[in-house]
TrEMBL record:
Keyword Oxidoreductase applies: yes
Essential cofactor(s): FAD
Top-level taxon in the UniProt lineage: Bacteria
Keyword Ligase included in the entry's annotation: no
Signal peptide coordinates: none
Family of the protein in this entry: Belongs to the FAD-binding monooxygenase family.
Protein name, entry field: Baeyer-Villiger monooxygenase
Organism, as annotated: Streptomyces vinaceus
Gene3D superfamilies per UniProt: FAD/NAD(P)-binding domain
Record keywords: FAD, Flavoprotein, Monooxygenase, NADP, Oxidoreductase
Length: 508
């Protein structure tokens, strides 16, 4: 980048959150911004996750921006190549390429209290920004477990999010570690080609059929020619999922019928009583994310596929030893062990007003104001922040709500005028999080009897939003200045404006 460039807004990441922020900035008339991307192309998690069978478990017409509808989705549940192509299309259509800085991984961000701006160090140089919008996402950094003997394993090892396409799995003995959303797509995709596939399962997932099909040419033509049909399809998909929310958040006992359907789905493919018992969860459906696949159970019934109902404990040469003592020989290990969700690595690289990192600030659990801003970090906000995840609908809906909040945040700064910053009040952050955690107490994610990646090290759910997407949109429609301190420069020094004065300025 050369020199000490200054921009109004620096966006971190170029997945759905980052590109969505860039589009919204341009629509708000802000063109003085950059999108800092660590890789050599845009796409975020849909660029990084290219494993066999990779697809979305949210219907295509709901898993897209409302301002960038796609009438030509090829399938009702689109695969990774189509979603990545969609994001590339968004970057081109909305003129985002000039703003994107590739190969520019952020190494550190520090708040400069004397100048009310962020100092940003990247792999391509340094710059400063008035506002930082972090859109790195929770599914960006793979989590690899510490397994004794892993470093000495003589075969191939990689994570599902860093798939080695140069390594040919055909004819190999492959161990798949984990039974999350990635694993249930990978297993049926590679099972026909490998010599033997051993799946290590700590906890069985609940799996429902995925009603995926090709979208016909007639349907696509109709959506192109009559846009209201496309909007109606999206609205129907959204409405059905909104109606489901109360069962997850208020009345988990209502999920018993869904459990019965899931068990029937399992029994259709799995005839071995012993295998069926291993695959039947002991927790309430919905406590972990409900997975969608019509190929997973049939793949497990194949003669060359084994299920070890125990976690991987140790590796001795080519031998993988499970916690129950089961030993398996393998030529390759694929880890489908998820991501750093409740301990986002970007937090180690953000230093706020008190000289503390965001990771240190969040050491007892992530918390933010309306999923966007954190106390002690002025003019910094995140897209897909704490408690903005969903268990049954499209994250794009939540992203767009947070973009509304981001846009109003920037409008408030413009109204206030001059070098100015907004800092979330600790009291406001605490009040918001108390409300969220109180609502969380009744949800299936807290009462369903499982341990999921939604929970942090303290067992607190800092990931999921305990309500509808409509509720969240209402809560993030605009910035309430009473929840912020207004920081101005006075005689080259920052001055915190009292709450009353700050509110008066915001209303002027």
């Amino acid at each position: 980048m050369g020199g000490r460039e200054h921009v109004r807004v620096a966006v971190i990441g170029s997945g759905f959150g980052g590109l969505g922020a860039a589009v919204r900035l341009r629509r708000e008339g802000i063109t003085d911004f950059v999108v800092l991307e660590r890789a050599d192309s845009v796409g975020g998690t849909w660029r990084d996750n290219s494993y066999p069978g990779c697809a979305c478990d949210v219907p295509s017409h709901l898993y897209s921006f409302s301002f960038a509808p796609n009438p030509d989705w090829p399938r009702t549940f689109s695969g990774q190549p189509a979603i990545r192509a969609y994001l590339e299309h968004v970057a081109d259509t909305f003129g985002l390429r000039p703003h994107v800085r590739l190969n520019s991984e952020v190494r550190m961000m520090r708040w400069d209290a004397d100048r009310l701006r962020w100092e940003i160090e990247t792999a391509a140089g340094e710059l400063t920004a008035d506002v930082v919008v972090s859109a790195t996402g929770p599914l960006s950094d793979p989590k690899m477990p510490e397994i004794p003997g892993l470093a000495a394993f003589p075969g191939k090892v990689f994570h599902s999010a860093r798939w080695d396409h140069d390594y040919d799995l055909r004819g190999k003995r492959v161990a798949m570690i984990g039974t999350g959303a990635s694993a249930i797509q990978i297993v049926p995709a590679i099972a026909p080609d490998v010599r033997r596939l051993t799946l290590f399962q700590r906890t069985p997932p609940w799996v429902m059929p995925r009603t995926d099909r090709a979208i016909s040419g007639a349907e696509r033509w109709l959506h192109r020619q009559l846009p209201f049909t496309r909007a109606a399809r999206r609205g129907l998909l959204w409405g059905i999922r909104e109606l489901q929310v109360s069962a997850f958040t208020k009345r988990p006992n209502q999920l018993g019928l869904i459990e019965s359907l899931a068990k029937a789905n399992m029994a259709r493919s799995i005839k071995d009583p012993e295998l069926l018992a291993k695959l039947t969860p002991s927790y309430r459906i919905g406590c972990k994310r409900i997975l969608l696949s019509s190929e997973y159970y049939p793949a497990l019934a194949r003669p060359n596929v084994d299920l070890v109902a125990s976690g991987l404990q140790e590796i001795r040469g080519n031998t993988l030893v499970a916690a129950d003592g089961t030993e398996t020989e393998a030529d390759a290990i694929v880890f489908g062990t998820g991501f750093h969700v409740t301990d986002m690595p970007i937090a180690d690289r953000v230093v706020g007003a008190e000289g503390r990192t965001l990771a240190d600030h969040w050491k007892d659990g992530m918390q933010s104001l309306r999923g966007a801003t954190a106390a002690g970090f002025p003019n910094w906000m995140t897209i897909i922040g704490p408690n903005t995840g969903l268990g049954n609908s499209s994250m794009i809906l939540m992203i767009e709500s947070q973009l509304n909040y981001m846009a109003d945040y920037l409008r408030q700064l413009s109204v206030l005028g001059g070098p100015v910053a907004l800092a979330a009040r600790p009291s406001a952050v605490n009040r918001w999080n108390r409300q969220v955690q109180t609502r969380m107490e009744r949800t299936v994610w807290n009462t369903g009897g499982c341990t999921s990646w939604y929970l942090d090290a303290q067992g607190r759910n800092t990931t999921v939003w305990p309500g509808t997407t409509g509720e969240f949109r209402k809560e993030t429609r605009s910035v309430d200045l009473s929840e912020y301190e207004v920081i101005r420069l006075r005689e080259d020094r920052p001055e915190r404006v009292p709450a009353g004065a700050g509110n008066a300025e915001g209303a002027a």
